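re: that complex we talked abt at group meeting.

here r the seqs, copy pasted straight from the sheet so there may be weird spacing, ignore it
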Amino acid sequence: MKVLIDQDKCVGSGQCVLAAPEVFDQRDEDGIAILLTDSPTEDQLAGVRQAARICPALAIELVEA
Amino acid sequence: MTDTLDAAAFPMQRICPFDPPPELGLRRADAPVSRVRIWDGSTPWLITRYDDQRAVLADPRFSADSRKPGFPYQGPALKARRDRNRAFISMDNPEHDKFRRMLTRDFMIKRIEALRPRIQSIVDGLIDDLLEQGPPADLVSTFALPVPSLVICELLGVPYADHDYFQQRSRLMISQLTTPEDAVRAADELKQYLVDLIKVKEKEPTDDLLGRLVVSQLQTGSLTVEAIADMAVLLLVAGHETTANMIGLGTLALLRNPEQLALVRAAGDNTDPALISNTVEELLRYLTIVHTGRRRVATEDVEVGGQLIRAGEGVIVANDAGNRDASIFDGDPDQLDVQRDARHHIAFGYGIHQCLGQPLARVELQVVYGTLYRRLPELALAIPFEDVRFKHDMIVYGVHELPLTW
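got the structure back, here u go
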Protein backbone atom coordinates (compact mmCIF):
# COMPACT_ATOMS: atom_id res chain seq x y z
CA MET A 1 0.00 0.00 0.00
CA LYS A 2 1.12 3.56 -0.80
CA VAL A 3 0.19 6.50 1.45
CA LEU A 4 -0.33 9.96 -0.01
CA ILE A 5 -0.98 13.13 1.96
CA ASP A 6 -2.30 16.44 0.68
CA GLN A 7 -0.54 19.11 2.72
CA ASP A 8 -2.73 21.86 1.29
CA LYS A 9 -5.78 20.18 2.80
CA CYS A 10 -4.16 19.28 6.15
CA VAL A 11 -5.44 21.28 9.15
CA GLY A 12 -2.81 20.02 11.60
CA SER A 13 -5.21 18.15 13.89
CA GLY A 14 -2.51 15.55 14.60
CA GLN A 15 -4.98 12.67 14.37
CA CYS A 16 -2.74 10.73 11.96
CA VAL A 17 0.27 11.03 14.28
CA LEU A 18 -1.72 9.53 17.14
CA ALA A 19 -3.08 6.74 14.92
CA ALA A 20 0.20 5.74 13.22
CA PRO A 21 3.23 7.50 14.75
CA GLU A 22 5.70 5.39 12.74
CA VAL A 23 4.20 6.62 9.47
CA PHE A 24 3.09 10.22 10.13
CA ASP A 25 4.73 13.19 11.81
CA GLN A 26 4.18 16.95 11.82
CA ARG A 27 6.36 19.70 10.34
CA ASP A 28 8.14 21.58 13.11
CA GLU A 29 7.35 25.00 11.68
CA ASP A 30 3.57 24.67 11.35
CA GLY A 31 2.31 21.25 12.46
CA ILE A 32 1.27 20.19 8.95
CA ALA A 33 1.43 16.41 8.40
CA ILE A 34 4.47 14.79 6.81
CA LEU A 35 5.18 11.18 5.89
CA LEU A 36 7.97 9.27 7.58
CA THR A 37 7.40 6.53 5.03
CA ASP A 38 4.96 6.18 2.14
CA SER A 39 5.13 2.38 2.22
CA PRO A 40 3.89 1.17 5.61
CA THR A 41 4.76 -2.29 6.80
CA GLU A 42 2.10 -4.95 7.38
CA ASP A 43 1.86 -4.23 11.10
CA GLN A 44 1.46 -0.48 10.46
CA LEU A 45 -1.53 -0.92 8.14
CA ALA A 46 -4.26 -0.89 10.78
CA GLY A 47 -2.99 2.42 12.16
CA VAL A 48 -2.67 3.93 8.69
CA ARG A 49 -6.23 2.89 7.78
CA GLN A 50 -7.48 4.43 10.99
CA ALA A 51 -5.55 7.64 10.26
CA ALA A 52 -7.18 7.87 6.83
CA ARG A 53 -10.59 7.21 8.36
CA ILE A 54 -10.38 9.85 11.08
CA CYS A 55 -8.44 12.59 9.25
CA PRO A 56 -10.89 15.50 9.51
CA ALA A 57 -9.58 17.17 6.37
CA LEU A 58 -9.69 14.06 4.11
CA ALA A 59 -6.02 14.72 3.42
CA ILE A 60 -4.83 11.09 3.46
CA GLU A 61 -5.21 8.83 0.46
CA LEU A 62 -4.38 5.13 0.49
CA VAL A 63 -3.50 3.48 -2.79
CA GLU A 64 -3.75 -0.29 -2.58
CA ALA A 65 -0.88 -1.98 -4.41
CA MET B 1 -43.35 10.16 11.73
CA THR B 2 -41.93 12.95 9.65
CA ASP B 3 -45.19 14.93 9.88
CA THR B 4 -45.47 14.76 13.66
CA LEU B 5 -41.80 15.50 14.18
CA ASP B 6 -41.57 18.10 11.48
CA ALA B 7 -40.25 21.44 12.62
CA ALA B 8 -40.30 20.53 16.32
CA ALA B 9 -38.58 23.05 18.56
CA PHE B 10 -34.79 22.69 18.80
CA PRO B 11 -32.85 22.19 21.00
CA MET B 12 -34.93 19.44 22.57
CA GLN B 13 -35.04 18.41 26.23
CA ARG B 14 -32.92 15.64 27.68
CA ILE B 15 -34.61 13.05 29.88
CA CYS B 16 -31.56 11.13 31.08
CA PRO B 17 -28.81 13.67 31.88
CA PHE B 18 -26.18 11.51 30.14
CA ASP B 19 -28.15 10.87 26.96
CA PRO B 20 -29.05 13.17 24.08
CA PRO B 21 -32.75 14.09 23.91
CA PRO B 22 -34.67 10.92 22.89
CA GLU B 23 -36.17 12.63 19.84
CA LEU B 24 -32.72 12.82 18.27
CA GLY B 25 -32.59 9.02 18.28
CA LEU B 26 -36.08 8.80 16.76
CA ARG B 27 -35.09 11.16 13.99
CA ARG B 28 -31.81 9.30 13.38
CA ALA B 29 -33.92 6.17 12.73
CA ASP B 30 -36.80 7.63 10.73
CA ALA B 31 -36.08 11.18 9.60
CA PRO B 32 -32.29 11.61 9.57
CA VAL B 33 -32.42 14.87 7.59
CA SER B 34 -35.50 16.77 8.78
CA ARG B 35 -36.44 20.29 9.71
CA VAL B 36 -36.56 21.76 13.20
CA ARG B 37 -37.66 25.17 14.41
CA ILE B 38 -35.08 27.28 16.28
CA TRP B 39 -35.31 30.36 18.50
CA ASP B 40 -35.66 32.89 15.66
CA GLY B 41 -38.49 30.98 13.96
CA SER B 42 -36.31 29.67 11.13
CA THR B 43 -36.42 25.97 10.21
CA PRO B 44 -32.94 24.61 9.47
CA TRP B 45 -32.26 20.94 8.69
CA LEU B 46 -31.26 18.69 11.56
CA ILE B 47 -28.76 15.98 10.58
CA THR B 48 -28.68 13.03 12.99
CA ARG B 49 -26.76 10.20 11.24
CA TYR B 50 -22.99 9.95 11.63
CA ASP B 51 -22.23 9.38 7.93
CA ASP B 52 -24.40 12.31 6.82
CA GLN B 53 -22.82 14.46 9.52
CA ARG B 54 -19.28 13.75 8.39
CA ALA B 55 -20.33 14.36 4.78
CA VAL B 56 -21.75 17.79 5.67
CA LEU B 57 -18.85 18.85 7.89
CA ALA B 58 -16.26 17.85 5.26
CA ASP B 59 -18.12 19.56 2.38
CA PRO B 60 -16.92 23.09 1.50
CA ARG B 61 -20.39 23.82 0.07
CA PHE B 62 -21.53 24.12 3.69
CA SER B 63 -20.24 27.38 5.14
CA ALA B 64 -19.31 28.06 8.77
CA ASP B 65 -19.48 31.82 8.12
CA SER B 66 -22.11 32.93 10.59
CA ARG B 67 -22.64 36.25 8.79
CA LYS B 68 -24.15 34.51 5.76
CA PRO B 69 -27.96 34.73 5.46
CA GLY B 70 -29.65 31.57 6.69
CA PHE B 71 -26.93 30.65 9.19
CA PRO B 72 -28.67 28.96 12.15
CA TYR B 73 -27.30 30.65 15.24
CA GLN B 74 -27.54 28.90 18.63
CA GLY B 75 -29.35 31.87 20.15
CA PRO B 76 -29.63 35.66 20.20
CA ALA B 77 -26.68 36.12 22.55
CA LEU B 78 -24.30 34.11 20.39
CA LYS B 79 -25.54 35.89 17.27
CA ALA B 80 -24.90 39.28 18.87
CA ARG B 81 -21.33 38.47 19.90
CA ARG B 82 -20.33 36.41 16.84
CA ASP B 83 -21.39 39.28 14.61
CA ARG B 84 -18.84 41.45 16.39
CA ASN B 85 -15.90 39.14 16.97
CA ARG B 86 -14.79 36.94 14.14
CA ALA B 87 -12.29 34.17 14.63
CA PHE B 88 -11.36 31.32 12.30
CA ILE B 89 -14.07 29.09 13.80
CA SER B 90 -16.55 31.09 11.70
CA MET B 91 -14.46 31.49 8.54
CA ASP B 92 -14.33 29.41 5.37
CA ASN B 93 -11.26 28.63 3.32
CA PRO B 94 -8.91 30.01 2.24
CA GLU B 95 -9.23 32.55 5.11
CA HIS B 96 -9.73 29.84 7.75
CA ASP B 97 -6.51 27.99 6.99
CA LYS B 98 -4.50 31.20 6.99
CA PHE B 99 -5.41 31.85 10.63
CA ARG B 100 -5.48 28.26 11.82
CA ARG B 101 -2.01 27.61 10.47
CA MET B 102 -0.65 30.40 12.66
CA LEU B 103 -1.59 28.21 15.63
CA THR B 104 -1.19 24.58 14.54
CA ARG B 105 2.49 24.58 15.50
CA ASP B 106 1.65 25.24 19.14
CA PHE B 107 -0.87 22.37 19.25
CA MET B 108 1.32 19.77 17.53
CA ILE B 109 1.31 16.33 19.13
CA LYS B 110 4.98 16.49 20.12
CA ARG B 111 4.73 19.97 21.63
CA ILE B 112 1.63 19.05 23.64
CA GLU B 113 3.19 15.73 24.69
CA ALA B 114 6.12 17.74 26.08
CA LEU B 115 3.64 19.48 28.42
CA ARG B 116 2.52 16.18 29.98
CA PRO B 117 4.92 16.31 32.97
CA ARG B 118 3.82 19.87 33.75
CA ILE B 119 0.13 18.89 33.46
CA GLN B 120 0.80 15.88 35.75
CA SER B 121 2.39 18.18 38.31
CA ILE B 122 -0.58 20.61 38.19
CA VAL B 123 -3.02 17.70 38.65
CA ASP B 124 -0.99 16.20 41.50
CA GLY B 125 -0.68 19.58 43.21
CA LEU B 126 -4.44 20.15 43.15
CA ILE B 127 -5.09 16.63 44.46
CA ASP B 128 -2.55 17.27 47.26
CA ASP B 129 -4.59 20.35 48.18
CA LEU B 130 -7.82 18.31 48.22
CA LEU B 131 -6.24 15.65 50.46
CA GLU B 132 -4.91 18.27 52.82
CA GLN B 133 -8.18 20.16 53.02
CA GLY B 134 -10.25 16.98 53.42
CA PRO B 135 -13.72 16.09 52.16
CA PRO B 136 -16.22 17.20 51.07
CA ALA B 137 -15.26 19.48 48.19
CA ASP B 138 -16.80 20.70 44.96
CA LEU B 139 -14.73 19.01 42.25
CA VAL B 140 -15.68 21.64 39.64
CA SER B 141 -14.32 24.69 41.47
CA THR B 142 -11.38 22.98 43.20
CA PHE B 143 -10.11 20.79 40.38
CA ALA B 144 -12.06 20.50 37.11
CA LEU B 145 -11.89 24.20 36.27
CA PRO B 146 -8.41 24.99 37.69
CA VAL B 147 -6.63 22.19 35.77
CA PRO B 148 -7.38 23.37 32.21
CA SER B 149 -7.38 27.04 33.24
CA LEU B 150 -3.85 26.78 34.64
CA VAL B 151 -2.68 24.88 31.56
CA ILE B 152 -4.21 27.19 28.95
CA CYS B 153 -2.93 30.24 30.85
CA GLU B 154 0.63 28.91 30.74
CA LEU B 155 0.31 27.94 27.08
CA LEU B 156 -1.17 31.28 25.96
CA GLY B 157 0.78 33.45 28.38
CA VAL B 158 -2.24 34.77 30.31
CA PRO B 159 -1.79 35.42 34.07
CA TYR B 160 -3.74 32.77 36.00
CA ALA B 161 -4.25 35.33 38.78
CA ASP B 162 -6.90 36.85 36.49
CA HIS B 163 -8.91 33.64 36.31
CA ASP B 164 -12.00 34.99 38.07
CA TYR B 165 -12.19 37.75 35.48
CA PHE B 166 -11.96 35.55 32.39
CA GLN B 167 -13.90 32.57 33.78
CA GLN B 168 -16.85 34.77 34.70
CA ARG B 169 -16.94 36.32 31.22
CA SER B 170 -16.50 32.94 29.51
CA ARG B 171 -19.47 31.62 31.45
CA LEU B 172 -21.65 34.52 30.30
CA MET B 173 -20.51 33.96 26.71
CA ILE B 174 -21.55 30.29 26.61
CA SER B 175 -24.81 30.53 28.56
CA GLN B 176 -28.05 30.52 26.59
CA LEU B 177 -29.65 32.56 29.39
CA THR B 178 -27.35 35.56 28.90
CA THR B 179 -29.01 38.54 27.22
CA PRO B 180 -27.44 39.71 23.94
CA GLU B 181 -26.34 42.93 25.67
CA ASP B 182 -24.59 41.05 28.48
CA ALA B 183 -23.01 38.57 26.05
CA VAL B 184 -21.61 41.40 23.93
CA ARG B 185 -20.33 43.21 27.02
CA ALA B 186 -18.66 40.04 28.35
CA ALA B 187 -17.03 39.37 24.98
CA ASP B 188 -15.92 43.00 24.62
CA GLU B 189 -14.43 43.04 28.12
CA LEU B 190 -12.59 39.79 27.58
CA LYS B 191 -11.29 41.03 24.25
CA GLN B 192 -10.15 44.33 25.79
CA TYR B 193 -8.39 42.41 28.55
CA LEU B 194 -6.49 40.44 25.90
CA VAL B 195 -5.78 43.54 23.78
CA ASP B 196 -4.16 45.11 26.84
CA LEU B 197 -2.18 41.94 27.51
CA ILE B 198 -0.99 41.71 23.89
CA LYS B 199 0.15 45.35 24.02
CA VAL B 200 2.27 44.54 27.08
CA LYS B 201 3.79 41.61 25.20
CA GLU B 202 4.45 43.90 22.25
CA LYS B 203 6.86 45.88 24.44
CA GLU B 204 8.34 42.78 25.99
CA PRO B 205 7.66 39.60 23.99
CA THR B 206 7.23 36.45 26.09
CA ASP B 207 7.92 32.82 25.20
CA ASP B 208 4.31 31.67 25.00
CA LEU B 209 1.68 31.40 22.27
CA LEU B 210 0.52 35.02 22.42
CA GLY B 211 4.10 36.25 22.74
CA ARG B 212 5.06 34.29 19.63
CA LEU B 213 2.07 35.69 17.70
CA VAL B 214 3.21 39.18 18.65
CA VAL B 215 6.61 38.49 17.11
CA SER B 216 5.51 36.43 14.08
CA GLN B 217 2.27 38.23 13.14
CA LEU B 218 1.93 41.60 14.87
CA GLN B 219 5.46 42.94 14.50
CA THR B 220 5.60 41.74 10.88
CA GLY B 221 2.37 43.57 10.11
CA SER B 222 0.46 40.38 9.21
CA LEU B 223 -2.15 40.77 11.94
CA THR B 224 -3.56 43.58 14.04
CA VAL B 225 -3.75 43.52 17.83
CA GLU B 226 -7.53 43.17 17.41
CA ALA B 227 -7.25 40.08 15.20
CA ILE B 228 -4.87 38.39 17.63
CA ALA B 229 -7.20 39.23 20.51
CA ASP B 230 -10.16 37.67 18.66
CA MET B 231 -8.16 34.45 18.32
CA ALA B 232 -7.04 34.66 21.94
CA VAL B 233 -10.65 34.96 23.16
CA LEU B 234 -11.55 31.80 21.27
CA LEU B 235 -8.53 29.87 22.57
CA LEU B 236 -9.01 31.00 26.15
CA VAL B 237 -12.73 30.19 26.32
CA ALA B 238 -12.48 26.92 24.38
CA GLY B 239 -9.33 26.00 26.28
CA HIS B 240 -10.82 25.77 29.73
CA GLU B 241 -14.60 25.39 29.56
CA THR B 242 -14.57 22.21 27.47
CA THR B 243 -11.97 20.20 29.38
CA ALA B 244 -13.38 21.40 32.72
CA ASN B 245 -16.77 19.98 31.83
CA MET B 246 -15.28 16.71 30.58
CA ILE B 247 -13.59 16.32 33.99
CA GLY B 248 -16.73 17.11 36.02
CA LEU B 249 -19.30 15.27 33.92
CA GLY B 250 -16.88 12.44 33.11
CA THR B 251 -16.25 11.82 36.80
CA LEU B 252 -19.99 11.75 37.49
CA ALA B 253 -20.54 9.32 34.58
CA LEU B 254 -17.87 6.99 35.99
CA LEU B 255 -19.32 7.23 39.52
CA ARG B 256 -22.67 6.13 38.04
CA ASN B 257 -20.94 3.18 36.32
CA PRO B 258 -18.85 1.70 39.17
CA GLU B 259 -17.59 -1.31 37.18
CA GLN B 260 -16.25 1.08 34.53
CA LEU B 261 -14.70 3.30 37.20
CA ALA B 262 -12.98 0.24 38.68
CA LEU B 263 -11.37 -0.51 35.31
CA VAL B 264 -10.14 3.08 34.97
CA ARG B 265 -8.86 3.19 38.54
CA ALA B 266 -6.95 -0.06 38.02
CA ALA B 267 -5.38 1.32 34.84
CA GLY B 268 -4.48 4.55 36.66
CA ASP B 269 -1.36 6.49 35.89
CA ASN B 270 1.07 4.61 33.74
CA THR B 271 0.06 1.03 34.41
CA ASP B 272 -2.22 0.83 31.34
CA PRO B 273 -2.00 4.05 29.32
CA ALA B 274 -3.85 2.43 26.41
CA LEU B 275 -6.99 1.89 28.52
CA ILE B 276 -6.79 5.43 29.91
CA SER B 277 -6.46 6.80 26.40
CA ASN B 278 -9.43 4.67 25.31
CA THR B 279 -11.43 5.94 28.29
CA VAL B 280 -10.84 9.50 27.13
CA GLU B 281 -12.14 8.70 23.62
CA GLU B 282 -15.16 6.82 24.97
CA LEU B 283 -16.12 9.58 27.41
CA LEU B 284 -15.70 12.19 24.65
CA ARG B 285 -18.07 10.12 22.47
CA TYR B 286 -20.55 9.23 25.20
CA LEU B 287 -20.84 12.71 26.70
CA THR B 288 -20.38 14.91 23.57
CA ILE B 289 -20.45 17.99 25.79
CA VAL B 290 -20.49 20.51 22.91
CA HIS B 291 -24.11 19.51 22.55
CA THR B 292 -26.04 22.13 20.61
CA GLY B 293 -24.89 20.90 17.21
CA ARG B 294 -22.34 22.15 14.70
CA ARG B 295 -23.96 24.87 12.57
CA ARG B 296 -23.56 25.48 8.83
CA VAL B 297 -25.37 27.13 5.91
CA ALA B 298 -25.49 25.67 2.40
CA THR B 299 -23.91 27.87 -0.28
CA GLU B 300 -25.18 25.64 -3.13
CA ASP B 301 -27.93 23.06 -3.51
CA VAL B 302 -26.60 19.86 -1.94
CA GLU B 303 -28.19 16.45 -1.44
CA VAL B 304 -27.61 14.94 2.00
CA GLY B 305 -28.91 11.47 2.83
CA GLY B 306 -31.32 11.66 -0.13
CA GLN B 307 -32.70 15.04 0.93
CA LEU B 308 -32.12 18.14 -1.19
CA ILE B 309 -30.84 21.06 0.86
CA ARG B 310 -31.13 24.36 -0.99
CA ALA B 311 -28.54 27.10 -1.11
CA GLY B 312 -29.14 29.49 1.77
CA GLU B 313 -30.72 26.88 4.06
CA GLY B 314 -29.20 26.24 7.47
CA VAL B 315 -28.13 22.86 8.81
CA ILE B 316 -27.52 21.68 12.36
CA VAL B 317 -25.28 18.66 12.74
CA ALA B 318 -26.30 16.95 16.01
CA ASN B 319 -22.99 15.23 16.69
CA ASP B 320 -24.29 14.01 20.06
CA ALA B 321 -26.76 11.87 18.06
CA GLY B 322 -24.09 10.81 15.56
CA ASN B 323 -21.89 9.64 18.41
CA ARG B 324 -24.70 7.26 19.45
CA ASP B 325 -25.21 5.87 15.93
CA ALA B 326 -25.39 2.06 16.35
CA SER B 327 -24.40 1.48 12.72
CA ILE B 328 -21.03 3.11 13.49
CA PHE B 329 -20.12 2.14 17.06
CA ASP B 330 -19.90 -1.48 18.23
CA GLY B 331 -22.16 -2.85 20.93
CA ASP B 332 -24.76 -0.57 22.54
CA PRO B 333 -23.61 3.02 21.97
CA ASP B 334 -26.01 4.24 24.68
CA GLN B 335 -23.88 2.46 27.27
CA LEU B 336 -20.56 3.74 28.60
CA ASP B 337 -17.90 1.14 27.78
CA VAL B 338 -14.32 2.32 28.32
CA GLN B 339 -13.05 -0.67 26.32
CA ARG B 340 -15.02 0.19 23.18
CA ASP B 341 -13.23 1.39 20.05
CA ALA B 342 -14.54 4.96 19.98
CA ARG B 343 -11.57 6.66 18.32
CA HIS B 344 -13.65 7.76 15.29
CA HIS B 345 -16.15 9.78 17.37
CA ILE B 346 -16.99 13.30 16.26
CA ALA B 347 -17.09 14.98 19.67
CA PHE B 348 -14.37 17.37 18.42
CA GLY B 349 -16.37 17.97 15.24
CA TYR B 350 -15.14 16.97 11.80
CA GLY B 351 -13.86 18.72 8.71
CA ILE B 352 -11.51 21.68 8.65
CA HIS B 353 -12.99 23.12 11.85
CA GLN B 354 -12.31 20.03 13.95
CA CYS B 355 -11.02 21.17 17.34
CA LEU B 356 -7.56 22.72 17.15
CA GLY B 357 -6.93 22.04 20.84
CA GLN B 358 -7.79 18.33 20.75
CA PRO B 359 -4.22 17.13 21.41
CA LEU B 360 -4.17 19.28 24.56
CA ALA B 361 -7.62 18.14 25.70
CA ARG B 362 -6.58 14.50 25.24
CA VAL B 363 -3.40 14.81 27.30
CA GLU B 364 -5.18 16.79 30.04
CA LEU B 365 -7.95 14.21 30.28
CA GLN B 366 -5.54 11.26 30.14
CA VAL B 367 -3.58 12.70 33.06
CA VAL B 368 -6.75 13.52 35.03
CA TYR B 369 -8.56 10.20 34.50
CA GLY B 370 -5.32 8.32 35.05
CA THR B 371 -4.57 10.08 38.35
CA LEU B 372 -7.70 11.32 40.13
CA TYR B 373 -9.45 7.98 40.78
CA ARG B 374 -6.20 6.22 41.68
CA ARG B 375 -5.24 8.84 44.23
CA LEU B 376 -8.81 9.26 45.58
CA PRO B 377 -10.04 5.65 45.38
CA GLU B 378 -13.02 6.21 47.68
CA LEU B 379 -14.41 9.06 45.60
CA ALA B 380 -18.23 9.31 45.98
CA LEU B 381 -21.01 11.80 45.38
CA ALA B 382 -21.69 13.90 48.50
CA ILE B 383 -25.27 14.81 47.51
CA PRO B 384 -28.16 12.74 46.09
CA PHE B 385 -27.76 12.23 42.35
CA GLU B 386 -31.17 13.88 41.82
CA ASP B 387 -29.75 17.12 43.27
CA VAL B 388 -26.89 17.46 40.75
CA ARG B 389 -27.48 20.53 38.58
CA PHE B 390 -26.74 19.92 34.90
CA LYS B 391 -25.84 22.63 32.40
CA HIS B 392 -28.91 22.31 30.19
CA ASP B 393 -28.73 26.00 29.37
CA MET B 394 -25.06 26.15 28.39
CA ILE B 395 -23.52 25.66 24.96
CA VAL B 396 -20.99 23.39 26.68
CA TYR B 397 -22.79 20.73 28.74
CA GLY B 398 -21.65 19.54 32.14
CA VAL B 399 -22.40 19.94 35.83
CA HIS B 400 -22.50 23.28 37.63
CA GLU B 401 -20.91 21.75 40.71
CA LEU B 402 -19.97 18.24 41.86
CA PRO B 403 -19.74 17.87 45.66
CA LEU B 404 -17.66 14.77 46.44
CA THR B 405 -16.31 12.88 49.42
CA TRP B 406 -13.32 10.50 49.45
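couple things i noticed - The interface with chain B takes residues 11-15, 17-19, 26, 28-32, 50, 53-54, 56-58 of chain A (CB under 8 Å). The mean pLDDT of chain A is 97.
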